[in-house]
Structure formats: structure tokens, C-alpha cells
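Hi R.,

Here's the chain you asked about this morning:
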Amino acid sequence: MVSAFAPEDPSEAGWRKPSGHLQDFAALHWCMLDLPQGIQRQDSARALGFKERSHSRTFREMEVGQSHTLLTQVLDPNAARQRGKKMEYLEMCTRKNMLSVATGAGAIYLLYKTIRAGLNSPSLSLEPVSIARLAIEPGNFAVKDSGELRKLLVSLSQKQDDYAKSMILHSITRCVYLLESEASACTYEDIRLVASALDDKDKGIKIQALNALKAFAGIRKFKIKIQEFVPKILELVTTIWDTELHIAGLRLLNGLPLPDHTHPLLRRMIPSLMEILQTGSTLTQVQVLKLLSNLAQKEDLLYDIMNCQVHSDFLNLFHASLPGNLLYEMLVFVEKLSEGRLTPQYQSVHWEYNELSLHEALFGEDSRLADRLLSLIIHPEEEVQIQACKVILSLQLCKEEEAKCSRQHVECSYFDEDDNP
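And the predicted structure, written out as C-alpha cells:
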């Protein structure tokens, strides 16, 4: 068989033996020409019954692949070099290298963002900035009055359905807490407008009105004005049995100074407050105890609290398994009562108490309060432990004062008998 790259007569002028890549190409050409004969030999072997079909096919594929690669290198010498560069690039693109590149790019981006934020930030100011105002007007430090609270008050003065009215009062509460300057600019007419919602028939509106008044009560100039509505607030708390309303009303009362002219009304409400203490939820009990502790410091109300009738299991409120905040407020209440008993004004009068009164449950001869206090000394919460110790010391002082008064009374009686033979 004659090659297509050589003349029929090798002695023909102009023909020379190929060299370099041409020699390789010629050898490759002859290999490819001999390839069909190899295939024929494999076919003959298969006909004779040899079971090497798969090995022969693999050998042929490898031979053809090597021939194709050699042909490519001969025809294009740069292809081998490009393929080598490509393999080197793929070896560099490992998972570890890609992760390192991504981490470096992320660090550069964060550094860029930090520098840009520092350049765009406002100049340092020594004046404190309200966080609430920043939340409402981010990036704007020059805003003085958004007008939002005024818009809500105007909307409240208009006719609204129950749901809209409740939501307006809720928004007013939030604005008063967040926009102090706008809330301080409100007038007494605005307070009266909010308080008028206490007369609404819907219980949810009453609760939202109490919360709004509580927010306004945090502003000093409005506390005296809101005192006018203490009778209405007490009426709601003591006549409507609802946990949320009790909490809202009691929180408002605890944030207000109670003037002397409200004491007669408070005296009538003490039994209802004591009932809330014994049957209400934990949050309600905490709030009513704070109010009763405040009232116990009023000399003209102390006896009414002491003589108020309570349940036979009243001392269960000192059980160590109760929440710590409730036990603490309960102990503070007892401390205020015990301190009130030590005042000269209270000891100057001989008081008589009902058999089921609060005084008998706490300070009577058959009271088991001392045992409950001893169990609270080892309470897990330190505040409860300290307060229990204070109550124990206060009770001890009361006993010493009572013994002293008894001796003085006996001595006075003895001298009176000597003077009157």
C-alpha cells in the first residue's frame, strides 16, 4: 500500500525523507492503515470462539485515541501546550483555593462598606439622641414634630367604630411613650378627650384608654389633671371583673399620687381590692399589692385595711412555691402594716378587730405567719430572703412594743388603785 505523502518513485527528483513531525505523521499513517487488519484478526478470533471481545474493543479504542492525539499534536503543535496550560489552571481551581478567594473578596467588600459608612456618617454631637426618634425617623436628626400624635387625637375626636377607636387609642399610647416632646405639647383638653373613652361601652376601648392615660401620667404636668379621673378608674377596677382591665387600672393608680379627698372612696373600695388580691392572677395580685402597700402608709386608712375580712387560707399567699415577685410584694405589704402598727398615733387607740380580719390572720395570737416567714428565709431569690428578714425584725419590734405598753398599762392601773382606797 502506497502512502499519500510519498511519490510513487522514491528516486523522483525533489523528494526527500521526511524528518521531525513529518516522520511521526508518516508512522501514524501506516499504523492507521494497518488498523483494519487488526480488526479483521479480532473478528477472526471471535469467529473461532475466543471470548476476548471486550478486551479487543478496549484495545482498539485506546489505539485509535492515541493515534488521534498524536495526529492532533503533529497537525497543531500549540494544542499540546494549550492543553497543558488548561490542566495547570484546573489544578489551581481546587475547593480550598476557591474558598480562599471568596473569603478574601468578602473581607475586601466589608472593609469597603465600613469605610464608606464612616465617610457618610454625621458629625459627632455631644447632645443625646433619642433612640425612639431614630426608630421613627432614621437618618433625620432635624425632625422636631412629626405631627403624628396630633393627627391621632383629631381622629379620636371624630366618630369612629369600636375597632378603629381602640386602635387609635393604642397608637396614641405608643406615640406618647416615643414622642415625648409632642406629648408634652398636648393640652388638658386632649387628656379629657382620652379619658372620655372610659365611659365607652366596649371593654377593650376602656382598657386602651387606661393605657393611654398611664402613658400621659408619665409626664409630670399631666399627673394632677389625671387625678380627676381616679373615682372613675376605681369604679372600673372594682366593678368589672376582667384581668386586663384590672392590670391596666391598677397600673394607672400606682402611677398617680392619691390626694386626701379620695380616701373616703378608697376606704369603700378596700374590700374589693382585698378580694382581687386573693382571687386574681399573679400580675393582678402584684399590682393590687403595690396599691395596698401605698394605702397602708395612710394613717386614716390603716385600720380599715387591718380590719378587712379575708379568706381563711389567706396565708397561702406566702407559700414558697409562688413567684418571687409576688412573694416580695406580699412581704413589703406586711412590712408596711407592721410599721404602721408601731406609730404612736395607731398605738394610742385601742382597736378591735373582727375574727376573720387581716390583722388576726397576720398578727393574731393564732397566726402561723412566723412559720411561713421562716420557710421564705431559704427562698432561692435573694430579694425574698432579705424582705422576709425585715418582716421578722419588724414583728419582733411590735411584740416588744406591745409588751412595753402592757407593763405601762398595768403600772398605771396599780397607781390608780392606790390613789382610790
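The mean pLDDT is 77.

Let me know if you need anything else.
M.
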